[in-house]
Amino acid sequence: MVDVRGAHKMFGDLHVLRGVDLTVAPGEVCVVLGPSGSGKSTLLRCLNELEVLTGGSVRIDGELLGYREDSSGTLHRLHPAAIAQQRSRIGMVFQRFHLFPHMTALENVMEAQVQVLRRSKAAAKAKAVELLERVGLSDRMDHYPAQLSGGQQQRVAIARALAMDPEIMLFDEPTSALDPELVGEVLAVMKDLAAGGMTMVVVTHEIGFAREVADHVVFMDEGVVVEEGAPSSVIDAPAEERTRDFLSHVL
Ligand code: ADP
Ligand code: MG
């Protein structure tokens, strides 16, 4: 479903991704671990075309992200509209919720459905109601973000991403900005999504979640994948010194 090959990303002279390969199978939950600055957010942003790779490729369900390949194998950058179309298939949830402050929870979940997918307001509303119920917010639909806890806002953000019917969901430290007592409710929604078969790439420091939910754990450091495999190997029996060192700080 996700196939990253030889991904490099430079910001000026800063070489942030240094040849990342990553494969995520359909329905798989891939958890990405790694120290701050190791390139985890940059990798997710490249998967969602918020950043353009300097080298290498990303394929989603076989389709090259950002480029069209002609019969001679030459790549041509896609038009912005085609890139927006690809991006709409990939949902992303950030550490900070980025809800529209002047819109209710319901309106936040309706907005892109109407603006980007051109759904009717009635269809968008029906979908938003269904998703807000699914994330446990049926009694908060008419609240504004400022009237919601961080955990509730993050659940609205997840519902908003799901409203686009994404094939893949990317989560970038979705619980890092939350008070500890609110982390569980967001992780519960993510577990429910995983159980429903969603393909997910999750950057998190929640090792318990990784152990319980991940099919595949990737440990990144300094822009490369240092080690990957099942949680029982990467988390419980890491082969690499750098992985052990990292885990000793977060466990
Ligand atoms: P992580 O999410 O693992 O903490 P990031 O992907 O956010 O790491 O960042 C990796 C490195 O890339 C850091 O040194 C960061 O400062 C740098 N970086 C990230 N985004 C940009 C950008 N837009 N411009 C310049 N440097 C960036
Ligand atoms: Mg980050």
Strand order of the main beta sheet, please? 8-9-10-3-11-12
Shape: globular
Query: Average pLDDT across residues?
Result: 96
Let me know the number of strands. 12
Specify the number of helices. Answer: 9
Largest sheet: 6 strands, mixed
SSE ordering? EEEHEEEEHEHHHEHEHEEHH
The distinct ligands, each listed once, are: adenosine-5'-diphosphate, magnesium ion
Taking pLDDT < 50 over at least 5 consecutive residues as the criterion, the unreliable ranges are none
Beta-strand proportion:
25-35%
- Please give the alpha-carbon distance between the first and last residues: 30 Å
- Helix content range: 25-40%
Radius of gyration: 18 Å
Find the structural class using helix and strand composition: alpha/beta
Task: Describe the protein in words.
With 251 residues, the chain is of the alpha/beta class. Helix content is 36%, strand content 26%. The protein is built from nine helices and twelve strands. The strands form three sheets. Strands 8-9-10-3-11-12 form a six-stranded mixed β-sheet, sandwiched between helices. The protein has a four-stranded antiparallel β-sheet with strand order 2-1-4-5, with helices on one face. A two-stranded antiparallel ribbon has the order 6-7. Strand 6 (67-69) and strand 7 form a beta hairpin. Helix 3 packs across helix 4 (121-134), helix 4 (121-134) crosses helix 5 and helix 5 packs parallel to helix 6. The longest helix is centred in the last third of the chain and has 16 residues, at 180-195. It starts with a strand and ends with a helix. Residues 40-41, 172-173 line the site of magnesium ion.
